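Project standup — Tuesday

K.O.: blocked on the structure for the chain from last sprint. Re-posting the sequence here as requested.
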Amino acid sequence: MYIDRLLLANFKNYIYLDVSFSNNVNCLVGNNGVGKTNLLDALYYLSFCKSYFNPVDSQNIRMGADYFAINGQYLLDDEGGDPVTVACTLQRGQSKKMKFNKKQCPTFAEHIGRLPLVIVTPSDQNLILGGSEVRRKFVDGIMSQVDKNYLQLLLGYQKALEQRNRLLKQFYDDNYFDEASIAVWDEQLVRYGEPIVEERRRFLNDFMPLFEQYYVLIHPDAPNGEKPSIEYVTQLAEGAPGLEGQLVDARRRDAQMQYTTVGPHKDDFEFGIGEFSVKRFGSQGQQKTFLLALKLAQFEYVRMHLGTKPILLLDDVFDKLDMQRVSQLVLLVGSDRFGQVFITDTQPGRVESIFEQAPDMPHKIFTVENGELRTEN
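H.V.: unblocked you, prediction finished:
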């Protein structure tokens, strides 16, 4: 599935936009701040019912406007048939709405996975430099896109965690502690939490070969010993007490802290190259290669499990990469291995020179200026 046509109204810096895309590679070229990333964010909205960059939906309404509307028309790669329409709208002071083929989605969770998409942006550096929550969110996002049951486990766990934390704060404020009340939410955390840990382990076993493969494809001249690694760090490690026991042991401490200190919401994924931490010892080039390999492995994992190629968004990914590696990346994502791709860049000559090396690669180049697009080919 690929997006054939996008219509925007009052979204970020776009007053109105109606544009059709190539089903292969689309390049958005222009200076910083003209709207390239905003357009990618609109595509992200249609897949995930939210912005990748700003969690406050109302702040994505164009200044001075009362609403935004994002409409997409999708076509099937090889089956033909009627287009699939998707719409995301928000009126100030009202709830956000998602429609799939003109029918409103009862829940946003129901829509996740219908339009698979992978995005790569400079902010993804937080996957390496940020805290454990960022890496958990990355892994959980991949798994939720391909497995509705896992998404329901996460939602159930989060609800129970919020209730338990609310109870702990109440205990602290009222200076009392009720074992029976906290045990109710402990039971729920165990019910959802232990399967989450097992599913994360299973995911990493399947994901690692894909990740290692793409790391080599992006960096074929990597020296010996520069093998990437991801280690799942969990309090429910082999030989450790079960989650039920950990929660019981932590009850009094949690009451003092006013939040739950144990459970899969504290897990982490440690990134390494060889024997070293990517965060502490990786060069900028190594970190960039590591991140690109992560995201392309995410693409492959989603494709394998859903049976369709996700849309791939590459936002300003050429920074810190030499021209040879830039060319290698574009030729890779423009191959039959991938589907529809969107690339943003500030240098028109760079993408044009790459397509000169592959004149048979279908593509469109758009110049972006202050919320307007102009087709260059």
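K.O.: great, moving the ticket to review. The mean pLDDT is 91. The longest helix spans residues 179-218.
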